[in-house]
Specification:
Elements (H helix, E strand, L loop, with lengths): L2 H17 L4 H11 E8 L4 E3 L1 H14 L2 E16 L10 E18 L5 E15 L6 E11 L1 H5 L3 H29 L13
Parallel strand pairs: 1-6
Antiparallel strand pairs: 1-2, 3-4, 4-5, 5-6
Helix pairs in contact: 2-3
């Protein structure tokens, strides 16, 4: 592992822990020091651009939750590649100024009434190496969260029951529809039959 990859592994874990907290000062410090001016944040619900809008998404956590605990399961760092446009047969080359880091974690969000909501996440940070205000350093240009909306609702018993019921109904209905649709496509033949050779 290169020195850059070691640094980015540490940095991605650090940023994750600070951003997924109820500390406004931690959010502001990380956004100010480690996010590009035009950074993009996205998750299954929102997409925003710019430090102030990214910061607002995380500052809102302190209003919604009394505490957040994180368990980081692992951090992986990957290079980015650029295709050599002048020679389509050549292999892509590594872009030394950009890297991706993926943080796999479980964050538990606890409300003021004591309801705890564990959410499994894969957070992807795209880092760019920039030279502004001093020596070159890594900054986040894209922060993308992938998680299940249902994870947020499952601790609520009624939502859990509704989710289970809906998945069963939708699963059965979609299986029925696919079976009928497939039958229309193959002329109504049973699955596994072979048309006799002419």
């Amino acid at each position: 592992m290169s020195d850059d990859d070691r640094e980015l592994t540490r940095l991605a874990g650090y940023i994750y822990q600070k951003m997924y907290s109820t500390s406004r000062s931690a959010h502001e410090d990380v956004i100010s020091n480690y996010y590009a001016q035009d950074a993009v944040f996205s998750d299954p619900i929102v997409m925003v651009t710019g430090k102030s809008d990214v910061g607002a998404q995380f500052i809102g956590l302190e209003a919604l939750f009394s505490s957040i605990t994180n368990k980081v399961h692992g951090v992986s760092v990957f290079p980015t590649y650029s295709p050599p446009w002048d020679d389509p047969t050549a292999l892509p080359v590594t872009d030394a100024t950009r890297r991706f880091a993926i943080v796999h974690a479980t964050s538990t969000f606890t409300t003021s009434v004591g309801v705890s909501i564990p959410v499994r996440t894969f957070t992807q940070f795209e880092f760019r190496n920039v030279e502004e205000k001093g020596p070159a350093r890594w900054v986040v240009v894209r922060h993308e969260d992938t998680w299940s909306v249902w994870d947020l609702m499952l601790p609520i018993t009624v939502m859990k029951a509704a989710n289970t019921w809906w998945r069963r109904v939708f699963g059965r209905g979609s299986s029925e529809w696919i079976t009928r649709f497939a039958g229309v496509l193959d002329g109504g033949k049973e699955k596994g039959t072979v048309e006799a050779a002419k």
